[in-house]
Specification:
3 copies of one chain form a homotrimer. Chain A is of the alpha+beta class and 159 residues long. Chain A is built from 5 helices and 7 strands, in the order H-H-E-E-H-H-E-E-E-E-E-H. In chain A, strands 1, 2, 3, 4, 5, 6 and 7 form a 7-stranded mixed sheet that branches. The longest helix of chain A is centred in the first third of the chain and has 33 residues.
């Protein structure tokens, strides 16, 4: 009996892990569009990296928050924007995880809304004493480049 | 042993709550695009509110169903439309919950598909004898207005 | 006590089923955009069908992989594309399940990104010894046709 309960507890924990990772990633877009720079940066580990290929590589909470407080993002928010992230495919290996999925930034302009950026994302996450955190998010425009496509492929070594 | 099992049951229930809320919101778009007005309205509590800032505020099943059966929505369906809702960030506090996320309405026209509405959404939900129901959904275009951005910020008092 | 634990186990299994189905569908888009034809085809049962109304009906792993390796999809990848699938509403009935949701294909071109296809999807899935697999995915453009809208309605007999 005790063994069965332990097995259930382990299965439950795995679902909780997946739920925590999904919710973390689902909260990125709302925080970005609300301009909540500190809360957004806190999704990352203290030494976490947010890499936007060809645009920025920010490491640490202050640098990541600065992306949200910076001119580019503030101009986007003033125009009107939506950072829509799709569902993610999640692979967990103990205290490490990878999530793959798309992001689309819609921007509002005089002629209405348009997809401004459409990108591939590969998130590497780590379990910490404070729960799951982003170690590395790589984002690259899906403009035909191999660099973006490989972010979406499974079974790559975690960074 | 009994205590451990009770703890597992409580953790399981929290995951079930999150799953129920996620599934409820994921079913909104398919019901809207299929024109299933009654089933869509039944996602709300009897006194629930669907507020589309600057367009409509409907309270109760009959009023919400009327939005789906109304001329605006029927014209959209005749043209071809997709009510795509992104993943939601969910916060549960006992029998109340909040979910934040984006919605995009694509509309078909002579030149193909275009994003017609891109909006912020804040859902307030309540557990009832019939399961989770929407008490209030606020939707506002992400056109640069503060009204839309604040819907996506965390830690606001539930309505 | 034993009965309570069995009840918990059954509830846990249902959540695991929903999680497995959600993750399977969330992995479709990343695999399509990475060009991982074999891994993508393996989401389907051996006799599974991928039906794109008005374009293709592929049955079996080889035929489904051929869609990803074919000229149409390779041209899309060379231009740059994102197969963004929205969250799905899932209904499970024992070893069968149905999932309903949207898909949007963004295509990159000289003037940036545009929504190239916006479609309704109805997935029928079956539990096998190897886990959940797709038996039938129907996809139809939401261009105003009834054929697409009915894919999104609930409570239809599984195929």
């Amino acid at each position: 009996m005790s063994e069965l309960v332990e097995t259930l507890a382990a299965r439950l924990r795995l679902l909780e892990d997946r739920e925590a990772i999904r919710d973390l990633i689902a909260s990125y877009g709302p925080l970005a569009d609300a301009g909540e720079a500190q809360a957004l940066a806190a999704l990352w580990a203290k030494d976490g990296i947010y890499e936007v290929v060809g645009f920025a590589q920010a490491q640490g909470h202050a640098a990541i928050a600065a992306l949200i407080e910076g001119d580019t993002h503030r101009a986007l928010m003033a125009d009107g924007c939506a950072h829509l992230l799709g569902p993610v495919a999640v692979e967990i290996d103990g205290d490490r995880a990878t999530a793959r999925g798309h992001s689309v930034v819609f921007r509002h302009g005089p002629e209405g809304f348009a997809p401004y950026r459409v990108a591939a994302n590969r998130w590497t996450l780590r379990r910490s004493a404070d729960g799951w955190q982003v170690v590395h998010r790589r984002n690259a425009l899906l403009d035909g480049s191999e660099a973006a496509r490989i972010l979406l492929a499974p079974n790559q070594p975690a960074s």
